[in-house]
Design goal:
This is ABC transporter ATP-binding protein. The chain is built from ten helices and twelve strands. By secondary structure, it is α/β, with parallel strands linked by helices. The radius of gyration is 21 Å and the shape is elongated. It binds adenosine-5'-triphosphate. Adenosine-5'-triphosphate (ATP) binds at residues 12, 14, 19, 21, 39, 41-47, 57, 59-60, 212.
């Protein structure tokens, strides 16, 4: 079973114009696969997730887009599409686990509620057993005690495990993890990523991992899509894209990552990270031609006027990038 999103475009209306935050973004994730969606801050990653989950802000409008899950298509411009999509099984892990947890209920009550909604006929004792089992599976120590605790009594990493346990119990077809480890320290990050992989292995769901970290993507994901100013500039398997980036932006992102890694090992201050010079363009006035033209180090005259297509890279049919340099005459 594959999950796909086709031509997702989202606008935000602002006091001075309309920001075209996403433009024709398409993604495809197979069952059991982890797709990393990377891009710098403001590139539109969360907008993709929110559009799928029906969590967009009031000033947002889905201009186009279809999501296909389990062979069934949903028109994302329709107001009730995301409710129907959620009904087919989607769960989301946020950077802040408190967005998924209710502070006034115990962990046990919240986990049992997921089970009650999923199988209303189940008895309480069975639900408690299953909830404890889920906490055990995400390696939360002393599950019985945790069941009676409130979210504020747990650390950030423990809360994130509870959210993963909730996802485990809801058995989604698609799990969206939006910067799930950004607020956690590096050791906890690795543990939480392992739990997400464990969840994927147990229920065979597709996972969309939203992150600004290429390091996380190369370590844990099967495929990646690179987002820039609301456009998907490149997509392919992690190995292919890493070995042969088709887009200059992807190459620059990988160069930054290597630099960050070196500086980490040299124990340098976090502030010295290399960044790509320039800024994201204002999406209220998308420039003509390639959206990355203003920051590209290998652009040529046509890049300022011709909107590039999505061209294949190398011999891999899954690998493509939006760069005119890949156009074959
Ligand atoms: N409610 C809103 N109204 C107006 N603009 C918005 C709104 N929400 C997001 N945006 C803008 O849309 C663009 C994409 O934002 P989004 O949060 O999806 O990016 P992101 O890649 O997830 O960023 P980050 O990594 O910082 O979370 C940004 O320019 C952002 O300022």
């Amino acid at each position: 079973m594959a999950i796909s999103v086709r031509n997702l475009s989202v606008d935000y209306s602002l006091p001075h114009g309309t920001a075209h935050a996403l433009r024709d973004v398409s993604l495809e994730i197979q069952k059991g696969e982890l797709l990393g969606l990377v891009g710098e801050s403001g590139s539109g990653k969360s907008t993709v997730a929110f559009a799928l989950m029906g969590l967009l802000a009031n000033n947002a409008k889905v201009i186009s887009g279809t999501a296909k899950i389990d062979g069934k298509s949903f028109d994302l411009t329709k107001p009730n599409a995301t409710a129907a999509l959620r009904g087919r099984g989607m769960a989301m892990i946020f950077q802040d686990p408190m967005l998924s947890l209710n502070p006034v209920f115990t962990v046990g009550t919240q986990l049992c509620e997921v089970l009650r909604r999923r199988s209303p006929g189940s008895d309480r004792k069975t639900r408690i057993g299953m909830a404890e089992d889920a906490l055990d599976k995400v390696k939360l120590s002393n599950p019985q005690r945790r069941m009676g605790q409130y979210p504020h009594e747990l650390s950030g990493g423990m809360r994130q495990r509870v959210v993963i346990a909730m996802a485990l119990l809801s058995e989604p077809a698609l799990l969206i993890a939006d910067e799930p480890t950004t607020a956690l320290d590096v050791t906890v990050e690795a543990q939480i990523m392992r739990e997400i992989i464990g969840l994927r292995d147990r229920i065979g769901c597709a996972v969309l991992l939203i992150t600004h970290s290429l390091g996380l993507v190369t370590e844990y994901c099967d495929k990646l899509s690179v987002l820039y100013a609301g456009e998907r500039l490149e997509s392919g398997t992690v190995n292919e894209v890493q070995q042969q980036p088709g887009h200059p932006y992807t190459r620059m992102l990988f160069d930054c990552e290597v630099q960050i890694d070196r500086e980490r090992h040299a124990d340098a201050s976090e502030n010295r990270f290399t960044v790509i010079a320039g800024e994201l363009p204002d999406t209220r006035q998308r420039p003509p031609g390639c959206i990355f033209n203003g920051r590209c180090d290998v652009s040529f005259a046509d890049c300022a006027v011709v909107d590039p297509g999505d061209y294949p890279v190398g011999n891999d049919t899954e690998h493509s990038a939006r760069c005119l340099r890949l156009e074959t005459p």
